[in-house]
Amino acid sequence: MNAGAIAALANAGVAVEVVEETGSTNADLLARAAGLSGPLLLVARNQTAGRGRAGRSWLSSSAGSLTFSLAWRFEGGLPRLSGLPLAVGVALAETLERLGVQVGLKWPNDVLRDGDKLAGILVETQAILQGGVWAVIGIGLNLAMPDELEAQIGHGVASLPWLARMDRDALLAALLDGLAGALRQFERAGFAAFAARWNLRHAWQGEQVCILDGGRVLHRGSAAGVDDAGRLLLDTVDGRIAVLAGDVSLRMKGG
After folding, report:
1. So what's the pLDDT on residue 47?
2. Is 251 considered catalytic here?
3. Is-catalytic flag, 53?
4. What is the C-alpha to C-alpha distance for residues 219 and 210, in angstroms, rounded to an integer?
5. Annotated active-site residue in 98, 240, 251, 253
6. What band does 161 get if pLDDT is binned at 50, 70 and 90?
């Protein structure tokens, strides 16, 4: 992977850096956020301490995965970022669809292929003293998952072996263009511009699910998509409720 080639192939107007190895591209960009002058894509050929939601580890292989983070500055406070991980999911899904891959979305931050996890999204933020906030959007995308790594993960994961054969610079440029376009739309209109597109790809629409927090069941019901704020709509025996994003996991009932 070559930073100059990615930037040249993309139309996003975003600076690009590629490093051979790092612990976490998200952690690196958060540490540098105060000194950034504009959006920056940081790609790691090998990431040794990737993170997922709720402090979970993200395991990846340098040969079979793409691991990268995009730092993007937003004006206003954190409330304006409601639904951002879901909007990123829509951007990934639409980009992959343009490349011939149909995927589904799982609330709040997973991209699925045939029911298994294909990509994960982690958004972390850092406030700016003069106003606004930096959002660091970390993405791990499985392309060709080695059997030994899948065994280490402990559950089925999806892969895209035909995209693994695609030129990595061109693939990253396509992903960057899709993300940058979506983030600029999010700046103008918030998640409301993405809600219908997310619901169109909702992998568990109508399924009976449980909402868990720390292993404890908070709610049970039928998944009914998301609202314009990115909250999961759940039809329960007591009526429809809206579940806020946070340290909450969604699991198939009985799963």
Report:
1. 84
2. yes
3. yes
4. 6
5. 251
6. confident
Give the model confidence (pLDDT) of 163-193 as tens digits: 778 899 999 999 999 999 999 999 999 999 9
Structure tokens at 55: 């402090």
Amino acid letter, residue 113: R
Active-site pick, 53, 106, 113, 231:
53
Could you tell me which of 85, 145, 78 has the C-alpha nearest to residue 117? 145
Other CB atoms within a 10 A radius of the CB of residue 166 amount to: 14
117 is catalytic: yes
Which is catalytic among the residues 106, 113, 117, 231?
117
Instruction: For the full predicted model, state whether its pTM sits above 0.85.
Output: yes
Domains of the chain: 3-200 (3.30.930.10), 208-252 (2.30.30.100)
Average pLDDT over residues 11-39: 93
Q: Is the pLDDT of residue 61 over 90?
A: no
Written as six digits, the tokens of 16 are 């690009």
Q: In DSSP terms, which residues pair with 181 in a beta bridge?
A: none
